[in-house]
Amino acid sequence: MADDFAPSGDGLPADDNWGATDVPGGQGDMQMTTIDFPEIKLFGKWSLSDIEVNDPSLEDYIAVKDKSAKYLPHSAGRYQIKRFRKAHCPIVERLVCSMMMHGRNNGKKLMAVRIVKHAFEIIHILTGENPVQILVGAVINGGPREDSTRIGRAGTVRRQAVDVSPLRRVNQAIWLLCTGSREASFRNIKTIAECLADELINAAKGSSNSYAIKKKDELERVAKSNR
């Protein structure tokens, strides 16, 4: 026991001098190791790093890259706690949550994820493009840029044209896309995934076959007459 605390050559106890010896693989041989993480792909298939948001006003409100890149559109994030926090919710997850509308579908998020995944597979087969890019294009095209609001008190009410904020454009585009696909699949032999794929493709092209594009044009036409 006494030998353990015997002073070493430089006046330090033997136990306190453990780092002074040259040990192979010690501090001199230490090397920094870098870990290459694999690229995050939606459903393990669709790359999110090369998605482009072509509308500058919506860049901050369509969350798809960097921190918003997820393997699954099911982050269990509490985006409703604070105002405007939902702008940071991944855009694919916002689509999934919007597909859960109407009482009988409330809370069935896994079913909604399956529908969106199936729709993305169909989009890729039909267009050969990244379905996330198609979704971003559909959201950009589907949101109205001008709307009308009610001005005045009871009795003398008139409608006044107003600009639409970027966040509301995104919100309304997602709602219109999901509503259009839901109505198209009702009492139809086509599945909801097929109708969602058709709606997204048509909206991304700006085609009037899309429910969202038709509604957007109608809202903008009414707003124009109320300027």
TrEMBL record:
Keywords (A to Z) from UniProt: Ribonucleoprotein, Ribosomal protein
GO CC term, one of those recorded: small ribosomal subunit
Region (Disordered): 1-25
CDD domains: uS7_Eukaryote (cd14867)
BP terms from Gene Ontology: translation
Pfam families: Ribosomal_S7
Cited InterPro entries: Ribosomal_uS7 (IPR000235), Ribosomal_uS7_CS (IPR020606), Ribosomal_uS7_dom (IPR023798), Ribosomal_uS7_dom_sf (IPR036823), Ribosomal_uS7_euk/arc (IPR005716)
GO terms of molecular function: RNA binding; structural constituent of ribosome
Residue ranges constituting the Small ribosomal subunit protein uS7 domain according to the UniProt record: 68-227
Name by which UniProt lists this protein: Ribosomal protein S7 domain-containing protein
